[in-house]
Structures are given as structure tokens and as C-alpha cells.
Amino acid sequence: MSDLLVSKGITKQFGTKVALNNFDLNIPEGSIYGLLGPNGAGKTTFLRIINQITAADKGEITIQGKPLDKSIIPLVGYMPEERGLYNNMKIGEQALYFAKLKGLSTAEAHKKTKYWFEKLGIQEWWNKKLTELSKGMGQKVQFVITVLHEPKLLIFDEPFSGFDPVNAKLIANEIIELSKKGATIIFSTHRMESVEEMCDHIALINQSNKILDGEINQIRHQFKSGKYFVEIDQATKDGWSEFNSNFEVETIAETENSLSFNIRKPDDMNSNQLLSRISSLGHITQFRENIPSMNEVFIRAVSSN
After folding, report:
1. What's the pTM value of the predicted model, to 2 decimals?
2. Bridge partners for 282 per DSSP
3. 79: which DSSP letter?
4. Would you say 23 and 42 are in contact if contact means Cβ atoms under 8 Å apart?
5. 108 contact partners, CB below 8 Å, separation of at least 6
């Protein structure tokens, strides 16, 4: 898989504050790439540099092998966290205006705007002004304006902020569908459940530095702690005290005939050997390794950096 976007040595400073420090990143074409980090880590600064809103002090970003310049603008769609719509301009007129700024003809702009308004069920908003819409409704319009020119690279900064769960799921599904059609997606979010559901790659930024990047499943496996979840039916209490004293065990639930617990595998034992030892306690109905969630990875990586 080739890289659509390559960042090399990007450094940006605002006064004495270093926002990005020698930041390298390769974003594969067709990927959904999560850009994660605490508030103030440098995520939005990086997105603004890609969109040529601000310039890096050092380093270079290329998209499809081309350095950033005006020719790149039609290749990118950007939905910022702070929405960029005009309060007193009709919604339909705004969508057409931004579409033509991205290089669409008047006919193309009308066709694609109408398609997206119908797809998201917002046709009746065409002649409304932004001040007449709720925040979530305004975000739907911003989403349409971001995607309707069918850019190669779509960038969403906190795209689910302000959406109720139904509309957040709707927009998430649309983002996944756009990826399937060939778009490369970058999005910054604090919703770790969205990262796990949608992303195939992530980068984690903390205090202006990249501290982690790669395929999401590989990263989650890097943070494994050697713990397994076990559920036993027809459990016998014979030998449980001895077993419990020989292993690091955290009991989750215990009834007269069943047990469920987390257990850490000793370093000198493989999983089959551990399973064999556990089987002496009763009939094993579940035995699985605990793979940390992205929320756990995020907390552990940031805390240790």
C-alpha cells in the first residue's frame, strides 16, 4: 500500500510554545487514520498545516508525492472542530459556493449538493440560515460541504462533537463508506470507541511529539499485559485456595457452581500450560486473552511518556 500523505520533520512553534517537534508520519492511501492525543498535544496544528492555514517552521508534507501548494487544495476536504459556515447565508447557497471554490462547475455543484442533501434528509434546510439550525444540524451541513467535491483526502477534527448518538452513528457510517470508495481519512477524536470501530491505523501525539504509530491491532497487542479472562462452569472448590495462592488471580464473580476471574500468565508458562492447570478447577466455558482497549492504550502511553 502506497502512502498518500508523508510528513517529514514537521516543526512548528508559537512564541516559546513548541506545537510540533520534528513530526514524521506516513498515512497509507485508503486508510482510516486516527490522530490521537491529549488537548494541546499538537493534533489540530498538524491538520491546519496540511490545509495550508498555517505553515510549518521546518519540514515538509507531501500529498500524492506533491509538496503543499494551491494545486493540492481540491484534493483535500477539511471539517474543522470550529465550524466555518456563514451565519446569515442560506445553507444551499453556502454549499454551492464552497463546492465551486473547490473547483466544481455550477452544474456539478448543484448535482452533488442535491445528492448529499437528499442522502442525509436535509433538503428542507436549503433556504434556512445557519442561525436557524441547531449545532448538530449545522454539523451535518459542514460534513456535506467537506465531502461533496469527492476529495482524495478527508480530514475531520472532532467530527462527532455535538452529535446525538443516532447522528454520530450516521456520520460514522458515511465516513466508512467514503473510505470504501477510495478516500483516505484522517480524523482527530477523543472518542476511543470510534477509533476502535473505524480506524485501521493511529498515531498518538503527546506534548508535541509522536510517541506511537502503526496499525491499531498491532498497537493494542503491544500493550498486552499477559492477563486472561476465564469462566468455569461446574466449578469445584477443591484446590481453589492452592491455585489462587500460586497465580495472580482477580476474582470477578463466584457462585456455588461457577467462577469467573482474570489471571496473569506466568512468564515461564505458555497459554496451553496455563489452560491445562485451570482445567483442574472445572469445565472451562471461556478462556481468552485480555487485549487492551484503545482507551487503555491511550492512558498508559500518555502516562508513561
Report:
1. 0.86
2. none
3. E
4. yes
5. 99
CB-based contact 160:192 (threshold 8 Å): no
Let me know the angle formed at the C-alpha of 275 by 274 and 279, rounded to the nearest 5 degrees: 120
- Note the pLDDT tens digit of each residue in 85-125: 888 899 999 999 999 988 899 999 999 999 999 999 999 99
**CATH class of residue range 227-289:** alpha beta
- Of the chain, the end-to-end C-alpha distance in Å amounts to 30
| Euclidean distance between CA atoms 259 and 252, whole angstroms | 8
Q: Which amino acid is at 187?
A: F
- Cell 521546518 sits at which residue? 58
Instruction: Please write the tens of the pLDDT for every residue from 20-53.
Output: 999 999 999 999 999 998 888 899 999 999 999 9
CATH number of 3-222: 3.40.50.300
Say which residues have a Cβ less than 8 Å from residue 162's Cβ, sequence separation at least 6: 135, 136, 139
Tell me the domain boundaries of the chain.
3-222, 227-289
Task: Tell me the residue type at 139.
Answer: Q
